[in-house]
Design a protein that fits this description.
The complex is a heterodimer of chains A (about 170) and B (about 375).
Chain A: E1 13-19, E2 22-28, H1 30-35, H2 46-53, H3 57-65, H4 79-85, H5 93-96, H6 98-108, H7 120-144, H8 148-163
Antiparallel strand pairs in A: 1-2
Chain B: H1 2-14, H2 19-22, E1 40-49, H3 62-77, E2 86-89, H4 95-103, H5 109-112, E3 119-122, E4 128-132, E5 138-145, H6 149-164, E6 171-172, E7 176-177, E8 189-196, H7 198-202, H8 206-215, E9 218-221, E10 234-239, H9 247-275, H10 277-293, H11 299-314, H12 323-332, H13 335-341, H14 348-362
Antiparallel strand pairs in B: 1-5, 1-8, 2-3, 3-4, 4-5, 6-7, 8-10, 9-10
Helix pairs in contact in B: 4-13, 9-10, 10-11, 11-12
The chains are: A mainly alpha (about 170), B alpha+beta (about 375).
């Protein structure tokens, strides 16, 4: 069996990856596996397969941009760079390419909102934001149901929450 | 005076001077035990983190990478759990030492290819390893023998919380920890276990198991072997998705799935012993026969045969033999580990000869497998 990429050397690295109902297979020679950096099972992800096969990820970014070549103002990273590497340039790139990434993240992950650990300094504000969201939904429902007694209680609770001084050392 | 000197020599003996010397000693990790280590060889949790306002390592120019390394390295070194740890710049490590670290699953192949601007901090127990400027600024991992995902997560969570006091992480309220690759976004967590599944492979049940595990959004991998033919019947199961769930949920789901795989493997072994004892004994007997008598053997064949030796130890067909003997050989017979024990550069053929010599020598006190009488309750 010959290598999928160079089609010259015999394939010695065989990868099969199944996620959900999607199965992808790759047969690479050792050199190509090395240059693509995908011969390590511990750091190999779906995007890497996309990268090698030229599918998915980068196309989604392109479509979202509507033909305009986006460039990260912070680090100068472009869509073309993403197509090449399957990686982003800097943390700011997530803002620059946000539209294209949104669809990609949906197919890649369980959800699109982080619910896990947060740096200590941000934890309090994150919890408050979550609480506020729930209270506001409850308030809207109470008003709709004409349950004004409950609505008043909720309003007071929201007031208390938003009136609370937030830590000043929170980086944006 | 003389007592002082001897004390100093002893300390030196206990603590090798540097990583290069440390790697000469055979991997002590193979001797360690953990829950379910008949089947779960090791547990691992790694976190990906990046520093705010700096380009990811793959895009950053060299001076920027060096700056990041110089900021992160002392922060990692100063952690209480990294006291006495080895801290090395990747350009200070030789190719062989790097390859050994890869064979011991301490660093990734990608990281082994890195030079200036990248680094590594490894504690002496080989239970915590931090890669600096791999794909992300920080890739920190905790390793434990056997099934100990929760403990590994606890250890790395703590390390991360300590580090966070001195480093300003790139974090977004919606997206969580920002990583170079969108596949790691959110928690940046990869929880994985290395499983030895000879029973499921022999019983030809491995494919349906892999498929159902995949359906749950987990990845099953065997490297240098196609599909079911993972080398040495060793498989790695890990989470794929990192965004939208908490770390604890991810750890617990993997734990649940692993518990089921363990049960299936135990059942497969039991059924094989009851229904097809000759098949099992044949594989184990042949594995012993070749390993104990070969004069030239490839790394691949060694791994596949060691797998059956390990199964034989589990089934108590080698009375007195420890599983650690086999686990150590899994590590020591790999190319870089073999090379390290001999000063001259070895060709692949020479390695095959030396590998066979080493395996024969290690197995010389292991007598051939006993064959248990077939259990009386099997009627046919």
């Amino acid at each position: 069996m010959l290598c999928t990429i160079c089609k010259e050397k015999p394939a010695t690295v065989h990868l099969t990856q199944i996620v959900g109902d999607k199965m992808q297979k790759l047969d690479l020679c050792e050199d190509c596996a090395k240059t693509k950096g995908i011969n390590d099972p511990t750091s190999f992800g779906l995007a890497d397969l996309d990268l090698v096969l030229g599918l998915g990820a980068s196309q989604q970014l392109e479509q979202a941009a509507g033909g305009v070549e986006l460039k990260c103002p912070r680090c100068g990273f472009t869509q073309a760079d993403f197509k090449k590497s399957g990686r982003l340039g800097c943390p700011e790139c997530y803002k620059t390419f946000a539209d294209g990434l949104a669809g990609l993240l949906k197919t890649m992950h369980k959800g699109t909102r982080h619910t896990g650990k947060a740096p200590e300094a941000l934890r309090a504000t994150r919890e408050n934001a979550d609480k506020l969201k729930t209270l506001q939904t409850k308030l809207a429902r109470a008003i709709k149901d004409e349950n004004y007694e409950q609505a008043a209680l909720l309003r007071d609770e929201i007031k208390q929450l938003t009136g609370r001084p937030t830590p000043t050392n929170v980086p944006r | 005076m003389s007592r002082l000197t001897s004390a100093a020599t002893r300390i030196e003996k206990i603590k090798p001077m540097n990583l290069h010397e440390f790697l000469v000693s055979p991997a002590e990790t193979a001797q360690r035990h953990g829950p379910h280590d008949r089947i779960v060889m090791s547990s691992r949790v790694r976190l990906a983190r990046n520093v705010r306002g700096a380009a990811f390592p793959g895009w950053a120019k060299k001076p920027e990478r060096v700056k990041i390394l110089e900021a992160i390295r002392p922060a990692v070194e100063s952690l209480p759990e990294m006291k006495d740890a080895f801290s090395e710049a990747m350009d200070n490590l030789g190719a062989l030492d790097k390859q050994i670290l890869v064979e011991r699953h301490l660093i990734s192949r990608e990281h082994a290819a890195k030079n200036s601007g990248s680094g590594l901090v490894l504690n002496r127990e080989e239970s915590i390893c931090v890669m600096i400027n791999e794909e992300d600024h920080l890739r920190m991992q905790a390793l434990r023998p056997g099934l100990q995902l929760r403990q590994a997560w606890g250890a790395i969570d703590h390390l991360d919380s300590e580090l966070e006091k001195n480093l300003d992480y790139a974090f977004d309220n919606e997206l969580g920890y920002l990583t170079a690759c969108p596949t790691n976004l959110g928690t940046g967590i990869r929880v994985s276990a290395m499983l030895h599944l000879p029973g499921l492979v022999l019983a030809e049940q491995i494919n349906p198991i892999i498929q159902s595990v995949n359906k749950l959004g987990l990845a099953v991998r065997g490297l240098y072997g196609e599909g079911t033919e993972a080398l040495g019947n060793v498989f790695q199961v890990s989470n794929q998705m990192t965004l939208g769930e908490t770390e604890t949920m991810i750890v617990e789901r993997l734990e649940k799935v692993l518990a089921q795989i363990i049960e299936h493997e135990e059942n497969a072994r039991q059924t094989l012993l009851e229904k097809k004892p000759k098949v099992v004994f044949n594989h184990i007997g042949r594995a012993y026969g070749i390993l104990a008598n070969a004069h030239s053997i490839s790394s691949k064949e060694t791994m596949n045969l060691l797998s059956f030796m390990r199964l034989g130890v589990d089934l108590e067909l080698f009375p007195g033999a420890e599983r650690s003997l086999v686990d150590e050989l899994f590590i020591l017979t790999q190319p870089a580990h073999l090379q390290k024990q001999f000063s001259d550069k070895l060709s692949a053929e020479e390695r095959d000869l030396l590998r066979a010599d080493m395996v024969r020598d290690r197995l010389k006190n292991v007598s051939r497998p006993v064959t248990k009488p077939t259990p009386p309750n099997t009627g046919n």
